[in-house]
Amino acid sequence: MYSVKMRAHQDGVHISGAETICEAQTIPAVLQTFFDKGFQHENGAVDFLNLKIEKIADPLYPLEALPIIENTPHTLEALCEMHGITKEALDKGMGYIFDDTQYRGAVIVSAQTGKRLDRSGTKGVRVTHFCFEDHAHTPLVSTRIQDALTIATCITAFAQVKGELCVSDDLYYTTGYFASAQCGYHRIHHLKPVGTRDGGRVIFVDETLQIDDYIAFLQQQPKQVIRHER
Ligand code: PML
């Protein structure tokens, strides 16, 4: 199996990215899809596009995709409260999403205090080496939701993770989600105003989390997220 990744920039600013793990014979089709995605993006014209292929030696770690809750009856604040994430932690998490830094990955914070726990600076912790397999009869409506569900499933796989909040940094996409292993992937609309590149991912965790093991799992372990009909 091979890991295939794409990232596209304009003037050093991230425009779009994509990744999967596939068999050798599928690589050309994947490269074409990723190339098209990178070059035709609403965030802007691309002046740098990187395509990377790496052989994967370790077996894929299987994960059951979180269920998607389309019309959540809960507000973000209520979801956080239900998951033991304090208002202080949510406010600090929101601060990272709406600050001037465009983190490439997620910021990990204490669910109790909101204190940042990872040491990845402005880079953030990127979830990498994953793929998605769909065994459900009803397909997902977009590859954006597929990618977001895959990442959320990887992020929430450790018991000490209380929840993840994601706001898209795409200019015209204002839907985000709150995800947890306990309650699934809750889509939340209008999380930000249209026309801004604000956005990001915040992972709220219990401070007992072994952060180095968790980051190694997110970044190095090859992961396969499998979706079944519910
Ligand atoms: C992104 O691709 O920019 C993140 C998407 C988050 C929300 C996806 C959804 O609509 O459920």
TrEMBL record:
Its cofactor is Mg(2+). Pathway: Metabolic intermediate metabolism; pimeloyl-CoA biosynthesis; pimeloyl-CoA from pimelate: step 1/1. Homodimer. NCBIfam families: PRK01322.1. GO terms for molecular function: 6-carboxyhexanoate-CoA ligase activity; ATP binding. This is 6-carboxyhexanoate--CoA ligase. Keywords: ATP-binding, Biotin biosynthesis, Ligase, Magnesium, Nucleotide-binding. GO terms for biological process: biotin biosynthetic process. It catalyses: heptanedioate + ATP + CoA = 6-carboxyhexanoyl-CoA + AMP + diphosphate. It holds the Pfam family BioW.
